[in-house]
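Design review, sub-item: ligand-bound model
Attendees: FS, YL, KQ
YL presented the inputs for the zinc ion complex:
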Amino acid sequence: METQQCTIGVDVGGTNIRAARISSAGDIICKKIVAGSRDPRTALDLITSLIREMDGPEVTAIGIGVPGRVDATTYEVFSGGFLDLSGLDFKTVIERIFGKPLALANDCSMALTGEARVGAARGLGNVVMLTIGTGIGGAAMENGRIVNGKQSAGQLGHLSVNYAGRQCVCGQRGCVETESSGSALRRHLDEAGYALETRFEDILPLAQAGDERALGIMKSWAGPLRSAIGTLSATFDPAVLLLGGGMGQAALDALGFLPKAQGWYCTEVRAAALGDDAGVIGAGIAAHDLSLQTDGAASSKAKGKRVLMVNGIPASGKSRLSHAVSERTGLPILALDTVKNPFLEHLEGVDRLFNRTLGKASYQAIFSVIGDAPDGSAFIVDAWFGFQPLELLRDHIAAAGVTDVAEIWCHAPANVLAERYAARLDQRLPGHPGASYIPELVELAGRASPTRLGPVYDVDSTKPPADDAVAEWVKRTLLERAS
Ligand SMILES: [Zn+2]
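KQ shared the predicted structure:
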């Protein structure tokens, strides 16, 4: 049996250290949790022994999420809290011991990567996350990439929401971390005269029943958080803002007691979905991304080919967008349907299964064409890439000598897709599934997601087209970067 390649994701906390083998689809293959340590050297020893236990020939790269600020380029850790790992040279130590590339980032950045690929924000490229625990962590993602600024952006717990507020460790006053973290809730409970053992779960039903004291805590605890969310919404304009961490759901419940957000900045706030596993999953995914980049870098000396994947399920608007980008960039389009349709026209009695086989062959044909093209050429590939396993796509990309990929993710709400698909039924060639496919399409819309093999641009095809902006992004991300 062929062994599937995987990575190791590690999530380092002061209380626990988790490690897991992560598949290229972002699934946990196996996982181990050990008690952490506040001593940095001991923590590093625990991390290396966990990785050693999980390592094997099928492991291609390692990802580690750590508390504190991390330089996105040098991987220097330069602050910490309960566990302070600053000064430890992870890159040298891990790469020397294991001989595999390392992705290192702040733990919340890793958690956001996990949630955006396989969790509560799956399929979205523009997402902001706050993790609420003893403190407040944060991370922001733009077009599928973590925003790092010059070094370590995304320390969203240190958004000041009250310039005359309490002193924060970061040097500012009234940071959302000092006002709306788990520690702040404890302070509010103490100040309101609740017993030491009182927890959020105890006062939630009281607040729901209209108890003034409990309601007061909800408002004073969640109010500063609401203010920070408004600021984040104005700064990043995310598709969704996730609340994670041990108190993420509690914070979401508490926000429910505030008057409904109004005005310009009313981003949807959602609970994170992966719980305590978000960090290891995200770290594993970041490691997969890194190994793909490393493969690309190794062969890019030969200046390989470049592919813009225009991805989305049927009726999501791929074809129109591919043509718009092609007109603006001069890139040729290789569309799966263009290759497949002549066969559907000429072959008799194509049923759904045969149609699928033709699809698979057409997919391969597209990459064969790219494989024959000279190095440095660039193409638009228009297909629903999710109809075949991600592993196969990786193989096709490698075999064709493609070293740079970018992706445009086209999507629309399920009901819109169903209407569009129904309206085009009479134009479909034999072999294409008919009206009976619509319920399947609706279900697919709920779980489909981009491949994220490279940077992603998210296009909601129900919004007015922004073709010029998309084409500019393609030039900047794929064409200028690789030349
Ligand atoms: Zn602060």
